[in-house]
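COURSE: Structural Biology Practicum
ASSIGNMENT: Worksheet 4, Part C
STUDENT ID: 0417
INSTRUCTIONS: Below are two proteins. For each, the amino acid sequence is given first, followed by its structure token string. Answer the questions at the end about the second protein only.

PROTEIN I
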Amino acid sequence: MTNEVKIFSGSSNTALAESIAKHFGIPLGKSSLSRFSDGEFQPSFEESVRGCDVFIIQSTFPPTDNLFELLLMVDAAKRASAKRIVAVLPYFGFARQDRKDQPRVPIGSKLVANMLTAAGVSRVMTMDLHADQIQGFFEVPVDHLYGSAVFSEAIRELNLPNLIMASPDMGGSKRAYAYAKHLETDVVVCYKQRKKANKVDKMFLIGDVEGKDVLLVDDMIDTAGTLTKAADIMAEKGASSVRAICTHPILSGEAYERIENSKLTELLVTDTIPLKRQSDKIRVVSVAELFAKVIYKVHNYESISSYFIF
């Protein structure tokens, strides 16, 4: 038996998977997806994976077909006698359902963890989980990478003279403080109130941004309501410029329109989720090389602690 590495892609983010394989130095593994007339689908590997370390790259953003396709691919690899099966989820869907925040609701991220484990994953690799405790939902090792590993250099290249980090809500303040400590800057935080999901009712700024180059930081951007409202408040309070970095560009609903009409100068995102369309205000920083390096380290049982920037 060999201990060969094979990298395969689900259908959610083939471009990222191809780039990861290229940086790793091997071609992307051959697989196919057959569909029945009623919508049922069946993935299959078109080459042997027996005795191999199999890395399956699939971001699990909606629709849930992406998640189920990953589960089927893991099951197929297990039944084809792969040595190890690593689920690489650049974006881990259902991560916002990490606790019971009201009666009679599920803990979706725990359910996803259970399904991946039941399907047969040996390990999980992901980036910027919405909640760190999700790592504890798994009974297999989890490599939790951070967007800061690719964003830190991009921030330095901006060369902002009066940089200050900002969080669009209280929940993201820990992330903003981590960036601020690393970059030796101050922090401001927005306090928001919501009456229902994806809609901000009120927002207040805690801190002074007058004459500052504000850099908002968050793990994901969905409808862009919170982020653009925070950017507009920063501008109203006298900020010289307002930019944002968000690892996962979900960008649903009116997100693109809100970004275009906001006071944001620029939005930096990664390619964990492919953009639905291009925008002059959105710049993509690739995570492909980072994932390729970590895959190499995991395959060779080497330490990956150097890739946990902050």
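PROTEIN II
(use this one for the questions)
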Amino acid sequence: MKTKPTFNRQKLLLALIQAFNGKLSKLDLQKLLFLFVEEYGAKKKVYEFIPYHYGCYSFQANSDLKTMHNYGFLYLNEATNEIELPSNNVDYINDLKETDRVSLNKFVQKYKDLSGNNLIAYVYKNYPYYTMNSRIAHKFSIKPYKKQDALFQENKKDFFTIGYEGITFENYINKLLANNIQTLCDVRKNPFSMKFGFSKNMLKHALEQVGIKYIHLPELGIESEDRQVLNTLEDYKILFKEYESTTIQTVEAQKALQYISDLSKHENIALTCFERDIEYCHRGVIAKVLHNNYQLEYNNI
């Protein structure tokens, strides 16, 4: 049985609940956690957020709540959507670094009287980006943030590619939203990842909730065993040369390439795999083939 949370971000989450008398609704917690991270957090944010059904939302924070419920650090009532700390007198605030304790105290003084609809309205007014996918913005006489607003870039390319190495799940989704991606094409052979959020089922579900379609194209993937010994760029070049002369030439792969080409004429699409650097990822080969054979222009985001 664990006696303390594993990660510092989880300790901060528990301290935040404690600071608000040990009990919060899930909705209030998401909003308060967002405000604390935005206004008092470190440069590297412990949690990141996306525009979701009720405004700012962190998948990682929600996952941490469930994990800490399982270990008995808190009680998560799914029926009432309330979170409560057990009466075991554990002082999570005192476990924080001094700078975090000071910041948390200032934060509580500023926001102690905001909750429920008043808290939602405050976040919507001050952080309008997070109203984009809101189902309740109309209740606050707020016009949801639109994709043509300042944050979004005009799409001058036929398609994009994106790797999720080194970024959080929420950061990844925000990058897709910022480039107005309508369909994500997953070109991994096996869409499973040890990195939070990037296995097929969760990725597909999350994207569909923010209006992005998910399509898996395993016929364009590389077998896992072929990627075991890759130490240098030269190793990757050898692998990709073999990939281009074999896998890409199959009937199934050619159909997938034609599908991507046809889709790109009607939608903003992105190809995705793991590696951040496209030179170390087979999606780079796919992108170059699409460029050479279908005259499609692309950017890596």
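ANSWER KEY EXCERPT:
Q1: The longest strand covers residues 159-163.
Q2: Residues 159-300 form a domain with the Protein-Tyrosine Phosphatase; Chain A fold (CATH 3.90.190).
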